[in-house]
Amino acid sequence: MKDKISNYELWFVTGSQHLYGAETLKQVNKHSEIIANALNSSSYIPLKVKFKPVVTTPDEILEICVAANTSKECIGLITWMHTFSPSKMWISGLNILEKPLLHLHTQFNREIPWSEIDMDFMNLNQSAHGGREFGFICTRMGINRKVVVGFWQDENVQQKVGIWSRAALGLNESKNLKICRFGDNMREVAVTEGDKVEAQKLLGWQINAHGVGDLVENVNAVSENDVDILMEQYKKEYNINTTELDNVRYQARIEIGLKNFLEKHNYKAFSTNFEDIFGLKQLPGLACQRLMEQGYGFGAEGDWKQSALVRIMKVMGEGLEGGCSFMEDYTYHLDPNQAAVLSAHMLEICPTVSEEKPNIEVHHLGIGNKDAPARFVFNVPEGKGINATLIDMGGRMRMIVNPVDVIKPKPLPKLPVARALWVPEPNLEIGAHAWILAGGAHHTSFSMALNTEYMEDFAEMLGLEFVIIDKDTNIRNFKKELRFNDVYYHIRK
Ligand code: MN
């Protein structure tokens, strides 16, 4: 069996009833176990899929939902209606279920056995109407779930279950995430602000601020010996493209001090603010990049929302090809043949999206008024990526996602930052237009491992407003969608 990326489990729960008799239920159990095992060994599904005995009464359904809620290992339920499961039986269970739900609308046999089929076969294999009864109760109760339709052995079905299971992993991370803010947000900036109480209630994020002095104390406490050891690692893993090694050493010192602090408090994401680095000799650059490479979420200028999103998207994409980074739309290339965005940040782009072994360089930085900070410099490789951002609409959070095609930039000899050149879907004109209408931030979490479906599943689990800008986007319809959403979320509130 393949390696799983964590010990978390998805429970495979099949609904039925006693009408059909013991023999049929035995058969249902057997089929369910076969499907659960197939999903468990699917290379598309990175979590364990655990078979659970078929449920046939309201009490059994309630019991399994209670067990799922309180289990630390279970992070989602896959339900399948092999036969008809009268769905009033599901009401009390679904009423209290807190874990994400996937409704697998499949059946045990792929094809109709034309010459053999009789009424016994029909009564055993009736997902086609059992699944509709279950769908009705979920819709009637307003239960967010993913519906996957198709034959359970098919690649695209297993892929969809796999994508949802990674979203469930993201949700689990979200519900347990602690975010450290060093200082507050950049003065006067609106989009990086947000309601931290609402974020905790909805997304589970514990967002706490620390004075930068706490960081400075930890940075100063790092021994020269520890810095020596980390510098050796830098020399092995990267190209040191500078003679100003003292400046690199200082970032190594920040990295160690910062990591010690985050580990001590169990923070998995953090934000900095260049306006609030009193006592540090450099703005943390290389240090933030290195910590992102190690899986931490990061947001600049106090942007805790994007920091948390980077962490969650890193968890969702674990083991997949392609990295994930904090990102910022910076400068346009308004070439009529192919308009593109040059994206970067002052310093802090994660080397998991580097095309090759990154260079470590030291350059003066006009902003922040400190010593020249060491940073990684690299290009992001050509390929597909997505930008996701989270904004606070006042009363609700909105997630906006836009796929992009990363293209090759011309040489940029005088630009000493990590950067990506991309064309947003459907093109820069409509993509940027829609993004701006939606209120999308200049900061994003950029991933080359995930696509929009992962984010849609994640947003669905949380009931987050989800706005997608892609090849199907048309500005007139998009404006309407935003207006409809305003009404919908207003009514729902
Ligand atoms: Mn910024």
Task: Kindly summarize this structure in a few lines.
Helices cover 39% and strands 21% of the residues. It has 493 residues and is of the alpha/beta class.
Distance between the termini: 45 Å
Morphology: elongated
- Indicate the proportion of strand residues: 15-25%
> Uncertain spans, ≥5 residues at pLDDT below 50?
none
Helix content: 25-40%
Calculate the mean pLDDT score and round it.
96
Structural domains: how many: 2
Which secondary-structure class do the elements indicate? alpha/beta
Which quaternary structure do these chains form? single chain
DSSP strand tally: 19
Blueprint (SSEs and pairs):
Elements: E1 9-15, H1 22-40, E2 48-51, H2 58-70, E3 74-81, H3 91-96, E4 101-105, H4 119-124, H5 127-141, E5 146-149, H6 155-175, E6 178-182, H7 196-203, E7 206-210, H8 212-220, H9 224-237, E8 239-240, H10 245-265, E9 269-271, H11 286-293, E10 297-299, H12 304-316, E11 324-333, E12 340-344, E13 359-362, E14 374-377, E15 383-392, E16 397-407, E17 419-424, H13 428-438, E18 443-447, H14 452-462, E19 465-468, H15 475-492
